[in-house]
Each structure stands twice: as C-alpha cells, then as structure tokens.
Amino acid sequence: MARVIVGDQLLPAKVVYVGSALDIWIVDDVYRLFVGEHSLSITDPEATELAFDIENLDPPALEQKWLAIANGFLSNLE
Q: Which helix (H) or strand (E) holds 30?
C-alpha cells in the first residue's frame, strides 16, 4: 500500500480515482478530494455517498457530480 507524509506522520493512502479536474484518494481511512490546489476531507454522511458513487457511477458521472459538490463548497469560502 502507498503511503503519504502528512505533517510528520506517514499515513496509508490509496488512489481511488484520477480524473481531468478531480482526484479521489483515501488517506488514513478518510476520503480526500483533490481539486486544483485544494484538498477536501469527506466525512459521513457524504463519505458513504461517495463510496456508493465510486462503485456505481461511471467515471464521467462520478467526476461531474463530485466536482460540482467540491466547487460549490469552495465557492462558499471566497
């Protein structure tokens, strides 16, 4: 299993999806969306929905849905 360094810790990581505008990883059992320079941690209930979508949506639909969710969240931060 791959590992990433977060702070001073070496954590297990799994790359679940790599798209043109969105990547999805699991780092230390937490889903992470990478959108541009941003990393968003996804927790329940959204993590359960994301896990379902990874298994059931085709890649373009998965990326479109979760990119819209991430961009909606990020736009609220501005």
A: strand 30-35
